[in-house]
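Practice record 12: protein with adenosine-5'-diphosphate.
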Amino acid sequence: MTNEEIWQPILAQIRSNVSPAIFATWFKSTYVISIEGGEATIAVPNLLAKEWLEQKYRKQTIGFLRSHNESVREVFFRVVKEPPPKTEKIKSANGAISGGQLGFDEFKFNKDTNLNPKYDFDCFIVGLHNELAHAAAVAVAEKPGENYNPLFIYGGVGLGKTHLLQAIGNEVIARFKNKKVRYIPMEKLTSEIITAIRGGTIETLRAKYLDTAVFIVDDVQFISGKERTQDEFFYIFNTLYNKNLQIVLSSDRAPKAIPEISNRLRSRFEGGMIADVSLPDFETRVAILKTKCQQLNISFSDEILSIIASSVQSNIRELEGALTKLAAHAKFKNVAPTMEVCQTILSSINPKKIINVKKIIQDTVNFYDIKEKDILSDSRKKEIVKPRQVIMYLLREEMKSSFPFIGRKMGDKDHTTVMHAYKKISNELKENETFKEEINLLKQKIYNS
Ligand code: ADP
Ligand code: MG
């Protein structure tokens, strides 16, 4: 392991334990100079930081270092004016860059493919919620261009889409040394396309993508409403497709639910395999936590893992966040947290989100891509009636508002109208699985934004 590989996860743990200001002031520019003979030397940018860290963080830093390298007995902070040497950057076997002053998120990724090697199939837990998406991803990685083209994976935030997409890329690289893989988020591709159109360099851009064996585009819903980008993307898509090159896409919703995309693009999206990822059940959440514990090199009792799994249900990213916090706590204190400590920490990171009428209305109209004034009007158009009933339902279900109150907020409707809407949506949720998913996604948007 390089010094940087040891230091980055430690910094990440510290970061989740101190305020952003403290982190930026004292920790951000630190790096490991050496670990030798049980002594670690950390570079700090100035004398103040040196003193502060020695007084407040010496012990904890040793503890953290020890969890990665047991030989460490002492830590020294040394003032170093210049930034970490660029030559420290080394290329590991898979071409990942490490070292230097990279930010956390871009800490380790491959420059050519844009892939982060930490996302692989081995550390991806399969449960009922992602079985199909996982199976399809593996099939595609084994035989790119031959199984499903495109593979379209969709689902709400933090449910593992990016992980799966990148795992496909990493697996292809591992299996086929000479296949070219590229991963790019749609937001970035959009800006590349716009820049290329403006600068008259569209041919260069095409050349960059048209020979990729596996082209992976994350969060394609961002193409909504962007006509020129859609045209260009359609061109790239078709060219790759016709050459039997693999295309993998993700989105926060199914193709048919992405507003403002051309029909021809939508039908391309729907032309291969569509698989969704949803919320993992309790057992799977525990299994995910166990894997993450191994990665963090920490062990927690089943009881603690159960508490985390039952109190964080929103998505896997938050589940990880909760675990990292508890792990950092345990390492600082050098004992496993008590149940009480767990409860306190968990309730501090997972406070009941504050939602209000306005937010429910706003998020719902955005979600369905309609106007607020239409919702409050008396319009009987189908595309308006449904979202209006959904809002009424959510106001009742999530905020426990009274029917007359909801009626008033919804443009002075009668309370019987609201009752009818509530019943209608409740019934449909029982019968229609797709609709249930849609409402779950909407709820995620309301609670997560
Ligand atoms: P999305 O792209 O759907 O928003 P991510 O792929 O970024 O979600 O996942 C969020 C976090 O949860 C990542 O750190 C990812 O590694 C982790 N994660 C998601 N699903 C799984 C899984 N099935 N097993 C292990 N880790 C997972
Ligand atoms: Mg993602």
